Every structure is written in structure tokens, then in C-alpha cells.
């Protein structure tokens, strides 16, 4: 049995290649991808909160859109205005909260009232769309 020392390591010109090295590299790449996905799936952060606000506003607007009481442009403008306003009003400390804590009952009611106001304003500006 021969044990390599530092002098022997210098004499090797090409490192040995094993077929499992390639698999190890691929698995480490997939491991990085999995870690990135785990970070993206966390329920904290401004982007996650904004997406939750968009989803909530969409749940408020969708019945009107499906009933054709609200057109596509109105839907998009109300969605954009409400999501932008909520994110502008929220301080940075609240943007770091968990989504469930951020969208509590009180904030949902405020968002609903704001969306209702925007819907009324849109309906008043576009009376020809109302059946």
C-alpha cells in the first residue's frame, strides 16, 4: 500500500476523473436551484406582500369582471392603483412582515374600501359600460 505525500501529488499531471464527479456537479447545481426556490417560497418580503395584495384585489374585482360590469382596462387600472397605493403606504418594517400578518382583517377592510371607491369612480366616469 502506497500513501501519497506532497511530492507525489506534484508528479501527477492530470487529476483522476471519476464518473461520479459529473453527477456530483449536477447535484450541486440542482441543490443551488432548490435553495433558491426555497428562498423564493418564503412568505416574507415586499414582492410576496405585493403579490398577496394583487391576489386579494383580484378576488374583489373578478366577480364584476366576469359579470361584464367592469372592462379589462378598468380592471387593470384599479388593480395597478390599489397595489401601488398599498405598497407606497406601507412602511419598510411592515414590508418585512409575513403575508398573513400584513393582510390582517383591518388592512383587508381598508383595501376593500379603497377598491370600492375606485370601482365607483370608474363606473361614474364610464357610464356607457354599465348595463
Give structural notes:
The protein is built from seven helices and no strands. Helix 3 (46-66) packs across helix 7. The longest helix has 22 residues, at 19-40. The model is unreliable at 24-41 (pLDDT under 50). It has helices at residues 6-11, 19-40, 46-66, 72-89, 92-95, 99-102, 105-125. The radius of gyration is 27 Å and the shape is elongated.
Mean pLDDT: 77
Q: Supply the number of helical segments.
A: 7
- Radius of gyration using CA atoms only: 27 Å
Question: How much strand?
Answer: under 5%
Structural class: mainly alpha
Largest sheet: none
Order of helices and strands: HHHHHHH
Separation, N- and C-terminal Cα atoms: 91 Å
Helix content: over 70%
Number of strands: 0
Spans with pLDDT under 50 lasting ≥5 residues?
Answer: 24-41
User: What general outline do the C-alpha atoms trace?
Assistant: elongated
Topology:
Layout: H1 6-11, H2 19-40, H3 46-66, H4 72-89, H5 92-95, H6 99-102, H7 105-125
Helix pairs in contact: 3-4, 3-7, 4-7
Please give a handful of descriptors for the protein shown.
131 residues, mainly alpha, 7 helices
Summarize the structure.
By secondary structure, the protein is mainly alpha-helical. It has helices spanning 6-11, 19-40, 46-66, 72-89, 92-95, 99-102, 105-125.
